[in-house]
Amino acid sequence: MDYAKLLLPTTREDPAEAEVVSHKLMLRAGMIRKLAAGIYSYLPAGLRVLRKVERIIREEMDRAGAQEVLLPAVQPAELWKESGRWEVYGKELLRLKDRHERDCCIGPTHEEVITDLVRREIRSYRQLPMNLYQIQTKFRDEIRPRFGLMRGREFIMKDAYSFDADSAGADESYRKMVDAYVRIFQRCGLEFVPVEADSGAIGGSFSHEFMVLADSGEDAVAACRACGYGANVEKAEVRAPEAGSAPEAAPLEEVATPEQRTIGEVSAYLGVPPQAVAKTLLFETDRGTVAVCVRGDHEANPAKVKNLLGANTAELAGEAAVRAVTGAPVGFAGPVGLSVPVYLDHALRGAGGLVVGANRGGFHYRSALAGRDFPVAGWADLRAIEEGDPCPRCGAPVAVRRGIEVGHVFKLGTKYSESLRATFLDAQGAERPLVMGCYGIGVGRTAAAAIEQNHDADGIVWPVPLAPWEVVLLPLQVKDEATRQVTGDLAAALQAQGIEVLVDDRDERPGVKFKDADLLGIPLRLTLGAKGLAQGMAEARERKTRAEHRVPLGEAAAWASAWVKERRT
Ligand code: ATP
Ligand code: MG
């Protein structure tokens, strides 16, 4: 491809709107342009990278025996009502009406649609197992779209769905997908870890996330160096501390704490450590509103609250709801005298009397004792694991690292096949629900994660398998007929070997061309300058190592082609 006519608008300045390096570099390298919040156009260089990710995914899904389909983006509300998700999905679901006033949505995921397809087409155990996948545009009206393709509203996802006759079969389908994912992310040149993930409140289900470790990651991963255990912090179980004997608690006492709202303020004002203060948080869930108390220096985890209650949603209550339930402004909620159930995190066990909000503006209680001063609906693991907490498997202290979730595999069980009545006839002729799994990969997020892991001060350093072009040819005197001839011959020879070549035929200063080649991250650069050409040589430079080689022109195509092919996966 010739650069002069290519839509490849590179820029030198860091775009102000971009916070993470992959977003900055995708904009600067002319890969993407923003249309609206979380909605991007893919330019040629960007699309080429996404296509590479997709090709790797396709090859590995096909190898694992999955079949490719393409499902509609627009989905009728009826299906979502059948599964029960129309009511619970919330604002991420983009809902619209067609001209007949019929409710529809733009698919954020396709469990309903695929289950509907399969319930009509699969009859017998003889057709199982079956795994269907697609690579398709999703829409999720994310509350905070950010980081470019990392968290968009419109984005490309590979989603696959497996259907098995029984749970053991579903486990086998799941294992095959885990293997396929390991191969996919290895082939993309990523450093990643599969971790146990939260699977919500669905019985008999489990899930793993594939995390690319990077400081910019939005997820936190607990990793144990001692035994290799890894889990999303939302999932990792925090062991209950050994219950020691609780110190005698003095009687409940109300104290004035004017304007002292945060744990830090309250503990300083009353002269007690933050661990002696209990934080009371109200969660609104589809199972009703509950109060959750955690130690002052801990954070309550909504996913664990959700799982404890078997709820589909659990969100921190807003200011108005806090006022309505406690009768006090935010900052003074406490468990004493509340009308909603109160759950306590294990870490508060044996703490004795606690400082808690008094549900009255400007007041707290001292010496509040669970059971004595307020009823306890339950003790549970309600906080996210933290650095240094004991590993749930071996007890050694865990480390907490940041990760980008690029893929998610999920054993669904019969959640959708039961609600949508997707059944098959088993060998005995009995009708049984299909056992399902679902498996997602964010295509754009994977490309972004690759940049997070592979860049330097000059730009992107693409792993060869994802690079938009494998080789860039850099003729320095584009007006010189001999240079043009040599460049054209070399490009043709490389293309004949199946190498993807970008020819920078712009009439620009060498510095500009070198800078753009580095920014674009093309793995191998071949410079054709006057001096080298006079000696019959091309100058090769590897983007990653910056190693330079002088290669005779006659051998340049074979040399570069071998270099690239060694690094493809
Ligand atoms: P997250 O927790 O990051 O919102 P999720 O759990 O909602 O992700 P899934 O529903 O499992 O994601 O979707 C499968 C894959 O799709 C994810 O692993 C991720 O790679 C990708 N993905 C999800 N949401 C987005 C998004 N807003 N932008 C880009 N990719 C996304
Ligand atoms: Mg999400």
Folded structure, characterized:
With 569 residues, the chain is an alpha+beta fold. It is built from 15 helices and 31 strands. Helix 2 crosses helix 11 (443-453) and helix 12 (481-496) runs parallel beside helix 15. The protein starts with 20 loop residues before the first helix and ends with a helix. The structure holds adenosine-5'-triphosphate (ATP) and magnesium ion.
CA-to-CA gap between the ends? 23 Å
Judged by helices, strands and strand pairing, the structural class is alpha+beta
Shape: globular
Q: Which range best describes the helical content: under 10%, 10-25%, 25-40%, 40-55%, 55-70% or over 70%? A: 25-40%
Identify low-pLDDT runs: none
Rounded to an integer, what's the Rg over CA atoms?
29 Å
Bound molecules: adenosine-5'-triphosphate, magnesium ion
* Number of E-state strands: 31
Q: DSSP strand (E) fraction? A: 25-35%
- Average pLDDT works out at 94
Question: Largest sheet at a glance?
Answer: 9 strands, mixed
- Our count of helices gives 15
